[in-house]
Amino acid sequence: MDIGANRYLIAVIPATLRSRVMGVIQTSTFGVRPVGAVLAGTLGAALGLRPTMWIGTVGAVLSVLWLLPSGLRYVRGLPAPASPAGAAAA
After folding, report:
1. E strands of the chain, at which residues?
2. In this predicted model, what pLDDT tens digit does every residue of 11-61 receive, in sequence order?
């Protein structure tokens, strides 16, 4: 994760939930890597290196299409930091 994404998550997620959210993010990203490696090895053995690389390239390009209809591209600044759960509202 890059610095901008971490900064956004820190601003949006309350301090009491940050460790849980980061745990889920790391488990989902690091947990998928072995599956992708096995799939890529299987495709490479079955189809050859060049077709497997093209499949990976097309998959990488298509994987960001779900971001286009989201509101993420309109974010121009960070929201106010989330208040701690026990803090009294002023």
Report:
1. none
2. 888 889 989 998 998 898 899 999 999 999 999 999 999 999 999 999 999
Q: Between the CA of residue 84 and those of 6, 14, 24, what are the distances in Å?
A: 18, 6, 20
Residue ranges of alpha helices (H) inside 48-67 are 49-62
For 80, residues 6+ apart whose C-beta sits below 8 A from its C-beta are 11
Give the pLDDT confidence score for residue 90 in this predicted structure. 47
Report CA torsion sign: 5, 6, 8, 13: positive
Most confident of 17-21, 75-79, 82-86: 17-21
**What CA–CA distances, in Å, run from 52 to 22, 61, 62?**
31, 14, 15
Q: How far is C-alpha 1 from the geometric centre of its chain's CA atoms?
A: 7
Separation of alpha carbons 50 and 67, rounded Å: 28
